[in-house]
Write a structure and sequence with these properties.
Helix content: 55-70%
Shape: globular
Strand order of the largest sheet: 4-3-5-7-6
Distance between the termini: 75 Å
Largest sheet: 5 strands, mixed
Structural class: alpha/beta
Number of domains: 2
Strand content: 5-15%
Radius of gyration: 25 Å
Number of helices: 24
């Protein structure tokens, strides 16, 4: 084993990355954020069931159809998986979600391998640096957890790393390098539109290096690949780039509706997500190098910097937005740090200090990995839907008390439900709401909330004395911790009541 690991230094990091991702897939569950479930899983699964949960498709919209502010490329790939599930299984929604997590975990192993290849190309004499990069990408911090969920910001990482690899394979880009870089950047942009900033930021680098043919080649290849990935727009809408235009239009007018922050918000995010004290060393290593850096170094660092500057200037500052470039930042950051450290007389005299800093990092990282692997996001909402699936429910109602968080209907096995948001619909008394359900009575009513949950339940029970209490599903301990760290993440209980003959129907 030792001999094999020495000859194949990528073997052990890949194995560790695989095991940690399988653990995160098997022992975790739920979803991390709104978008990874509702804009991916919920949409794709509903299409496979002959529904259109998010009303993305123009033939299901009333009036003038309007493009949803997302794209079909990645969601379409998940739709094909759900169609495959119908042929081969599994059939239970939770089992399907598990398979999705495993597949995403396997897919993310490419990031580890490509980080190693990029490091080998940028620092060919430092094989230990490339191995260290692979270990960081495989087994540190939140990467095992993030790698198994359906975030587009993570799905675009392997092709983006492929693009960077193509850019650093040689100082004078050859046609093979141009194809690899262009296809990688094009696919990444097709999955996550903002990755196009990488391509834009690459232009001045190649111009400065006078690589005219490479600039044209990468540009044409990337645009061609991206255009092919937008082909579903022609099928669905009858014209190209509809989703892209819808995405730009939505974000130009609704950006202020989302979390904001100062211009240095993402610097703080990087310091946290990379985990101290390594985060300080990696950021210094990535951006301190001067004229001594090789030309292919700037083909990675400048696009990363451009991507970060773009998002720092943008008003909507959600932490996940910068995830696409973080693995590349780790790669060049570690190379730059090792290069600077080896040239520093001060660090030559303080080798033990650096060893202590990295030991501290790995202790913190191991704790983060251990805490995050069993993460089951939005536990109460998911388990409530799984309860309905076990009851073979056809129609249900959700009364949202303290938040407008939608129920993850995918786990219920049905797409027929009624949503009442008490925060915005307070003018409708419970009796009137219940009467509106008579045409298709829900079998269960789910009350979702926290502080005012008991009050809302009491109001509905007074209007419908026949409601029968079934169970209460509490949030997970992890959900409570996340809420405590950042209250913007809602935490709710779900109380389930059977309607039976409780509705005021004639």
């Amino acid at each position: 084993m030792n001999h094999s690991a020495w000859r194949h230094p990528l073997l052990l990091p890949l194995l560790a990355g695989l095991l940690l991702r399988l653990a995160a897939a098997l022992y975790g569950g739920g979803y991390l954020m709104h978008d990874d479930h509702f804009l991916v899983v919920e949409a794709a699964a509903s299409w496979a069931d002959g529904e259109d949960y998010n009303n993305w498709l123009p033939w299901n919209q009333k009036g003038t159809p309007k493009a949803h502010p997302a794209n079909f490329a990645y969601v379409g790939s998940q739709y094909l998986l759900f169609e495959l599930f119908k042929l081969t299984g599994p059939s239970h929604p939770s089992d399907q979600a598990l398979v999705l997590r495993i597949l995403h975990g396997l897919y993310s192993l490419a990031t580890i391998a490509l980080g190693h290849l990029i490091a080998r190309a940028l620092a060919p004499t430092r094989k230990h640096t490339a191995t260290a990069v692979a270990w960081l990408l495989a087994a540190s911090g939140l990467w095992p957890l993030l790698s198994v969920h359906q975030l587009v910001e993570m799905a675009c990482v392997p092709p983006l790393m492929m693009g960077f690899w193509g850019l650093v394979r040689s100082r004078q880009l050859r046609w093979q390098d141009i194809l690899i870089a262009g296809i990688g950047i094009g696919i990444a942009t097709g999955i996550r539109f903002q990755c196009g900033v990488i391509g834009v930021a690459l232009v001045p680098v190649l111009l400065a290096q006078r690589q005219w043919q490479a600039l044209v080649g990468v540009g044409v290849t990337a645009l061609g690949t991206f255009s092919l990935m937008q082909a579903p727009d022609l099928y669905v809408w009858g014209e190209p780039f509809v989703q892209l235009r819808g995405y730009i239009g939505y974000n130009s007018t609704h950006a202020g509706n989302y979390p904001k922050g100062p211009w240095y918000q993402y610097l703080l995010t990087l310091l946290g997500i990379l985990l101290p004290p390594a985060s300080l060393m990696l950021l210094w290593g990535a951006f301190h190098r001067g004229r001594s850096a090789p030309g292919n170094w700037w083909r990675v660092v400048v696009p990363i910097a451009g991507f970060l500057i773009f998002h720092s200037a943008y008003i909507n500052k959600q932490e996940r937005f910068i995830l696409p470039v973080v693995p590349a930042l780790i790669t060049v950051g570690l190379i730059g740090w090792h290069n600077w450290r080896e040239r520093s007389q001060w660090w030559a005299r303080h080798r033990k200090l650096e060893g202590g800093l990295w030991a501290t990092f790995w202790i913190i990282s191991t704790a983060v990995v251990a805490a995050s692997i069993p993460y089951s996001g939005k536990h109460s909402r998911v388990k409530a839907m799984e309860f309905l699936y076990g009851q073979k429910v056809e129609t249900f109602a959700v009364v949202q008390v303290d938040s407008g968080s939608m129920p993850p209907q995918f786990y219920s096995g049905t797409w027929k439900s009624y949503h009442i948001d008490n925060r915005r619909d307070q003018q409708r008394p419970p009796l009137q709401v219940a009467a509106s359900w008579c045409a298709s009575p829900p079998q269960f009513i789910l009350f979702q909330g926290d502080r005012h949950l008991g009050e809302a339940v009491g109001q509905y029970k007074a209007a419908m004395p026949g409601l029968r209490y079934v169970t209460t599903i509490a949030p997970s301990r992890t959900d409570r911790w996340i809420h405590a760290l950042n209250p913007i993440n809602s935490v709710e209980r779900v109380m389930i009541y059977a309607t039976e003959d409780a509705l005021p129907c004639p």
